[in-house]
Design a protein that fits this description.
The chain is α/β, with parallel strands linked by helices. The protein has 26 helices and 20 strands. A 6-stranded parallel β-sheet has the order 10-9-11-12-14-13, with helices on both faces. The chain has a 5-stranded parallel β-sheet with strand order 1-2-3-7-6, with helices on both faces. Helix 18 links the parallel strand 11 and strand 12. The longest helix has 31 residues. It is elongated. The protein starts with a helix and ends with a helix. The mean pLDDT is 97.
Length: 671
């Protein structure tokens, strides 16, 4: 079908008014971006994006990210028009209960949505992760004459995205890594919620991105499809990531709201919307009008996508015939399956009263896993020697060594979080990112989105308590465990010793549809003697009976996670000497324990035993759920201090003597 200028305008107005009608019907939403950026999206989707609406998960598809997720009706309009399983009725139920068209795009809910976006800058960072994933897979699996991984990542980014720090972090790294498969189109409308961007955002964005190492291209008229097309074509040939700055008009066509903040996040109103339709020559009725010839044009994407995938499948068959082992491995990864025997070589740690830090045990486990799992890839925010997350058998992922599995994110925690999530969206990776637990605050939005999006991201947090010692309260996380435990769908695992650390990693590896946070110690903790304690495999159930000591049924339950388990272990021994029967419960994960059936939970924490003490080297919030109204939580309701860690534990009352004293008090009826 010929794209005359007249037809092109009709197609653009279809996108604009489908989007605006959805916002107006919902009486809620953001019409400005879809109306202003319609030509950008049209150009990407009709001239460049390789995708298959009939198979949204075709692996070598190009990825499109709407980083400005508030403009979600733009994406929903494109998905419907190009033939995805998103009927018009869903667009008409925009932002309504039970629809597949929520206010911001949600991965896994709407076919064709590649990322959950809305918190600005996150989609920008996710795209960098997707591009890294594509570069790495191409380096590992492509062979001369067999280019089976070569997708591009496109994103529509906004002024708000570029203001956010997470985007700056991700952009800086992307430029350093020369991610030429990354093409971002900047909707430069110069309007934010508070008005003109002149009030707060006046730096030269182009020069900033050039300094990052990006190719920067300009489109003076954001409605000029041919100019946008030419810029994208040029971007595809450059080894650097590209930012195409297109000057647009927010709320294009609205008679009184175009180029104003009013166009951003409010429905246009019936009168204003009618005025826009009259101005652009669009029928006033019906709402959600799609001209038949426009629909036929957009639906060519179905046949085109089928052809692209069939061509790729033919290349895949030839590749499989020549490289069967590589093909089988990549196919397994894409399907999300683990290889047989993947956990066979994990270390068993002998009992040792001196033990080791759980971060050290984690490093040993990571390297054992990496030998069996090529999909395990990640790194740290410039802390690998401290977080023990370096894969010794591989190199650093760099522009000249994209086969490397060690990601050096630099001091960019938030960017790291968004990038790791982007790799998880790819589907062929088990990605991890690591830093000190206290810096989880710097990346909380990315952690939260990994949980909301059901991603298998693994967050490796070390230096998990006041036990890190002399660095002091700025680096000692006291509220962070409680904060992370509050995130739905995130499993927090705080292992007590080296063997529990091994089991925690096994759980994290198997959780491909939800994220895991590992909280690991800096200081050494004893490796428990499993001949007198239950096997560490109990970690899988969240909490388990570590030991029952004494001559009768337990009178008191002592429970803890992480490094505090060794405290209750020693306190339990002392109580037994004093004639008290004790149950010790290792409690590495509240979330996993809460998922167990009632009979198991009752077997670990019998309701008849009211005398319970929980010990935590942080705030105690939440432990009352497990100790009950007659129990006691020994915790730290303040910031830490700078001193050797043993001194801090002593001074803040986290001692064997304190635990024994509190247990005796409970047994005597005290509180």
């Amino acid at each position: 079908m010929m794209e005359t200028k007249e037809f092109q305008n009709k197609a653009l107005n279809t996108i604009r008014f489908l989007s605006a009608d959805g916002v107006q019907k919902a009486n809620s939403g953001h019409p400005g971006l879809p109306m202003g950026a319609a030509a950008i999206a049209y150009t990407v989707w009709t001239r460049h994006l390789r995708h298959n609406p009939a198979n949204p998960k075709w692996f070598n598809r190009d990825r499109f990210i709407l980083s400005g997720g508030h403009g979600s009706m733009l994406l929903y309009s494109l998905l419907h028009l190009t033939g995805y399983d998103l009927p018009l009725e869903e667009l008409q139920q925009f932002r309504q209960w039970g629809s597949r068209t929520p206010g911001h795009p949600e991965y896994g809910l709407t076919p064709g949505v590649e990322t959950t976006t809305g918190p600005l800058g996150q989609g920008f960072a996710n795209g960098v992760g997707m591009a890294i994933a594509g570069k790495h897979l191409a380096a590992v699996y492509n062979r001369p004459g067999h280019e089976i991984i070569n997708y591009f990542v496109y994103a529509l980014v906004t002024d708000g995205d570029l203001m956010e720090g997470v985007a700056a972090e991700a952009a800086s790294l992307a430029g350093h890594l020369k991610l030429g498969n990354l093409i971002y189109l900047y909707d430069d409308n110069r309007i934010s919620i508070e008005g003109s961007t002149e009030v707060a955002f006046t730096e030269d964005r182009a020069r900033r991105f050039e300094a990052y190492g990006w190719q920067v291209l300009f489109v003076e008229d954001g409605n000029d499809v041919d100019a946008i097309d030419a810029a994208i074509s040029q971007a595809k040939t450059d080894p650097r990531p590209s930012l195409i700055i297109a000057r647009t008009h927010i709320g294009y066509g609205l008679p009184t709201r175009q180029d104003t903040a009013k166009a951003h996040g409010e429905p246009p109103g019936e009168e204003e919307l009618r005025g826009a339709k009259q101005k652009l020559g669009w029928p006033l009725e019906p709402m959600f009008y799609i001209p038949e010839d426009v629909l036929v044009f957009f639906r060519q994407a179905v046949e085109r996508g089928k052809r692209w995938e069939e061509e790729w499948q033919a290349r895949w068959i030839a590749y499989r015939q020549e490289f069967p082992d590589l093909a089988s491995e990549l196919e397994r990864r894409i399907q999300g399956n683990l290889p047989a025997g993947w956990a066979d070589d994990l270390p068993e740690f002998p009992a040792d009263p001196k033990g080791m830090a759980t971060r050290v045990a984690s490093g040993k486990v990571i390297n054992a896993l990496a030998a069996r799992l090529p999909e395990l890839m990640g790194g740290s925010a410039d802390l690998a020697p401290s977080t023990m997350t370096w894969i010794n058998s591989s190199s650093s992922f760099q522009a000249e060594s994209p086969e490397g599995r060690n990601l050096q994110f630099g001091v960019r925690e938030h960017g790291m979080g968004g990038i790791v999530n982007g790799m998880a969206y790819n589907g062929a990776f088990i990605p991890f990112g690591s830093t000190f637990l206290v810096f989880a605050d710097y990346m909380r939005a990315a952690i939260r989105l990994s949980a909301l999006s059901h991603l298998g991201s693994i967050w490796v947090f070390t230096h998990d308590s006041i036990g890190l010692g002399e660095d002091g309260p700025t680096h000692q996380p006291v509220e962070h465990l409680a904060s992370l435990r509050a995130i739905p769908n995130l499993v927090v695992l705080r292992p007590a010793d080296a063997n529990e650390t091994r089991e925690a990693w096994k759980i994290a590896i198997e959780r491909r549809d939800a994220p895991t946070a590992l909280a690991l110690s800096r200081q050494p903790v004893p490796t428990l003697d499993r001949t007198e304690c239950a096997p560490a495999s109990g970690v899988a159930r969240g909490a388990y009976v570590l030991a029952d000591w004494g001559s009768q049924s337990p009178e008191v339950i002592l429970m803890a996670s992480g490094s505090e388990v060794s405290l209750i272990y020693e306190a339990g021994k002392e109580l037994v000497k004093q004639g008290v029967s004790v149950r010790l419960v290792s409690f590495p994960s509240w979330e996993l324990f809460a998922q167990q059936d009632l009979s198991y939970r009752e077997s670990v924490l019998p309701s008849r035993i009211k005398h319970r003490i929980a010990v935590e080297a942080g705030v105690g919030m939440g432990w009352e759920r497990w100790v009950g109204c007659e129990g006691k939580v020994i915790s730290i309701e303040r910031f830490g201090a700078s001193a050797p860690y043993k001194v801090i534990y002593q001074q803040l009352g986290l001692t064997v003597e304190r635990i024994v004293e509190e247990a005796r008090s409970l047994l005597k009826g005290g509180h």
